[in-house]
Amino acid sequence: MVTALHACDTATDDAIAFGLKKHAKFMVLVPCCQAEVAGFLRESKALSLSRTPLSELWRHPLHTREIGSQVTNVLRCLYLEAMGYQVTVTELVGWEHSMKNELILGRWTGQRKRSAAERLRAILAEFGIADLESLRFPELAKLGSDSNL
Question: So where are the chain's domains?
Answer without folding.
Answer: 2-137
